[in-house]
Automatic annotation (TrEMBL):
Biased composition (Polar residues): 466-484
Start and end residues of each stretch annotated as Disordered: 460-484
Family: Belongs to the DPH1/DPH2 family. DPH2 subfamily.
Record's keyword annotation contains DNA repair: no
Single GO molecular function: metal ion binding
KW Iron (keyword) present: yes
Identification of the protein by name: 2-(3-amino-3-carboxypropyl)histidine synthase subunit 2
Pfam name, any one: Diphthamide_syn
Length: 484
């Protein structure tokens, strides 16, 4: 099982490449930074008796101090979750079930994916931001695009600066400020057309953000680092330009290479004969429906399907399944594979699988990284056609230059009845057997029917350092050497 799961030694000996938060000297600083008073009130208001505190690696050094303070204030037991099952941005409901927890307090960066079992309280990091400089730079950019609708997003660590920045940009009417979709009740208006004061709900909820907008924005301004996955996820949702503010400058972003790679991944999936459904979350609501959706897409294209769940995916774990041609990963929108270049097989998202295998869906540059948008009830869901693919014309693979043709079961039956000399077994492809025949070593040969049947006899006895038959041979060798 070592090839499919990480051992305890790996967790202890692992080198963590993070920038730890500065240690807090006083209790008052800890209470203010981690909003511990709000955490204690949340536990008391909900009558929670077993609460898990989930920390990312860079905050583990403060976990004990926080846990002791909350236990003292509430009189209840709390548990610390460190090494999460999948990603630290996701709420780890699986680990909390080991202690029958009735609530989770999540510290640090979060993807804000909806959970299905337990109530969750988020405590976000608060990084410093020069509000005056930020507003000044954005103002200079908006002067050239006053008539355009601009969606302004904040990285979670800078979201506490949203209101000061919003006040300094109040002269511009076509601004939409996204709110965090963290489960808390917020009456904040996000735009001039927002009806939050009357309907108590924003119209659009995407990727952990909520806001009111008619249509789609003309441009996006993201306040946060360029490498943030939140920036990429929102930039591919809309067709307009995207800018990010970092280190006092506003720069545009381009993801042309990611679009090219998307084409490549789609071709790999079309060529594949076997598909692995890589389950990289057990807490995000709707992941089982996503598994069923991928199965339906693969079955329609006559592709073998295997469901794989190995915790945090890495190249070593997935290399145990060479029979699988490609993986379709079900995870939170901000999940990123480490050392993806080391993987033997490409890993796709459900959105890319939809573009590759669903013939009713036209290719688009606008794509959602949230798999919940493609399951029944999702915004981008399109049901599969009821007919078969027997009338679909074959196409040519752009990678292998070979013709791709899907043979359905009904078409195979017609061919079998018209050509009696052709057996049905020749129409189906056994993916595992074809991979096995191409291997240089195919395992131990059982030699069934080739071994003579004999009665049970006494086997060798002893220990590994010297069995009984080995001791006799060594004694005989010693006597012969002494005689000589």
């Amino acid at each position: 099982m070592a090839g499919f799961s990480s051992s305890g030694d790996d967790v202890i000996e692992r080198t963590i490449d993070v920038s730890p938060e500065p240690s807090i000297s006083s209790e008052s600083e800890s209470i203010e930074k981690f909003e511990l008073q709000r955490c204690a009130e949340w536990m008391k208001d909900r009558n929670l008796s077993k609460v898990c505190l989930q920390f990312p690696d860079n905050l583990l050094h403060s976990s004990v101090q926080i846990a002791l303070w909350l236990e003292k204030q509430t009189g209840n037991k709390v548990y610390i979750l460190g090494d999460t099952s999948y990603g630290s941005c996701c709420v780890d409901e699986v680990a909390s079930e080991h202690v029958n927890s009735d609530g989770i307090i999540h510290f640090g960066h979060a993807c804000l994916s909806p959970t299905s079992r337990l109530p969750v309280l988020y405590v976000f990091p608060k990084a410093a931001l020069d509000v005056e400089k930020c507003a000044q730079v954005i103002k200079a950019h908006l002067e050239t695009s006053k008539d355009q609708t601009t969606l302004i997003l904040f990285d979670i660590q800078y979201h506490h600066c949203k209101e000061p920045v919003k006040d300094r940009l109040s002269d511009f009417e076509n601004l939409v400020f996204a709110e965090l979709l963290d489960g808390s009740v917020s009456d904040t208006t996000c735009s001039s057309g927002c009806q939050m004061s009357t309907c108590k709900d924003h119209t659009i909820k995407k990727l952990g953000r909520t806001y009111c907008i008619d249509g789609e924005p003309d441009q996006i301004i993201f306040i946060g680092p360029h490498e943030a996955q939140t920036l990429y996820n929102h930039s591919i949702l809309f067709s307009g330009p995207t800018y990010y503010y970092s280190d006092g400058t506003l720069k545009d972003v381009s993801f042309n290479r990611s679009i090219q790679r998307r084409y490549y991944l789609m071709e790999r999936l079309k060529d594949a004969k076997s598909v692995g459904i890589l389950v990289a979350t057990l807490g995000v609501d709707g992941y089982l429906k996503a598994v069923d959706r991928i199965r339906a897409l693969a079955k329609r294209r006559q592709k073998k399907c295997y469901v794989i769940s190995v915790g945090k995916p890495n190249a070593a774990k997935l290399s145990n399944f060479p029979e699988i041609d490609v993986y379709v990963m079900i995870s939170c929108p901000e999940a990123v594979l480490e050392s993806e270049k080391d993987f033997l097989q490409p890993v796709l998202s459900l959105a890319e699988a939809e573009l590759a295998l669903n013939e009713t869906r036209a290719f688009t540059y606008k794509l959602s990284k949230d798999f919940r948008d493609f399951i029944p009830g999702g915004e981008c869901f399109e049901p599969l056609p009821s007919g078969t693919l027997e009338n679909e014309e074959p196409d040519v693979s752009l990678l292998s230059n070979k013709i791709r043709c899907v043979t359905t079961e009904s078409k195979a039956e017609e061919t079998s009845s018209e050509q009696s000399l052709q057996t049905r077994a020749n129409m189906s492809v056994n993916v595992v057997s074809s991979h096995l025949s191409n291997r240089t070593w195919q395992g131990l040969d059982p030699a069934i029917g080739q071994t003579e049947v004999v009665k049970a006899v006494t086997g060798r006895s002893g220990i590994a350092s010297g069995y009984s038959n080995e001791q006799n041979s060594s004694e005989a060798t010693g006597e012969s050497s002494n005689t000589s």
